[in-house]
Amino acid sequence: MTFEKLTANVRKKITLLANSDESAIKHAELVYAESNTQLKQEISTLKEKLSNLEIIAGFKEHSPLVAKAVPPPKGGKKGKDLPIDVSRIDMRVGKIVEVERHPDADSLFVEKVNLGEGNLRTVVSGLVPHVPIEMMQGLVGIFMCNLKPVKMRGIESQGMLMCATDADGRVEPLVIEGPAELMLGDRVYVQGYPGQPDAQLNPKKKVWEQVKPDMRVDGAQIATYKGVPWKLMNSPNAVIKAPTMVDAQIS
């Protein structure tokens, strides 16, 4: 029942109340209490949807409650028995709020990315030959967040925008199809591969290099790891995919 219908229902009950007997009054009180509860639930749902839309639009960061739902990685267990799989990779939903060409590299974009952390991250991507800058601005995609920061022609990159690359060398960023209430910072997981991602990948261990070959877009354009689709923790119905490519490498 919509907010407007609930309000009309309550008004109707109040009008009838004036000419009712005691039993009818008690019944009306029960109906009012039930309607009031439904109204509160409806208002709470609308507030949550509005908050999530503001996050996606970049008007606000996550609230503490949302931050708890998508905690930053603490790093998994340490030791030689740690599995080399997708659970070690910290991939999250982010939105590019600013983008410009790198001043010293023709092929690089410099992006400011909102990952719901409170501060924007700088990400440098070699996508100038592949993606118009107008498409990069405002893009909501998947970012790898636990690579060791590295300087690219003098500007430190603090992550990587996940893209599909086909056999012809075409590159396109992965996109997310699904509910409007996507949360910035929501983490990617793959069913069957539990565990916390590393706080920061050790370049010497080459974890990403070993995981990367099994990161692919399948024949239906869906992002997968070893054939299992990527999912978002807080939006399980969302679909992470390539806009046009099939059977392509993800990197």
Automatic annotation (TrEMBL):
Listed under GO cellular component are: cytoplasm
In the UniProt record, the signal sequence range is none
Sorted alphabetically, the Gene Ontology BP terms of this entry are: translation
- Is the DNA-binding keyword given for this protein? no
Which residue ranges does the record assign to the TRNA-binding domain? Answer: 85-189
- A single GO molecular function term of this UniProt record: tRNA binding
Q: Gene3D superfamilies per the record?
A: Nucleic acid-binding proteins
Which stretches are transmembrane?
Answer: none
State its location(s). Cytoplasm
What keywords does the record list, in alphabetical order? Cytoplasm, Protein biosynthesis, RNA-binding, tRNA-binding
Top-level division of the source organism's lineage:
Eukaryota
- The molecule here is called tRNA-binding domain-containing protein
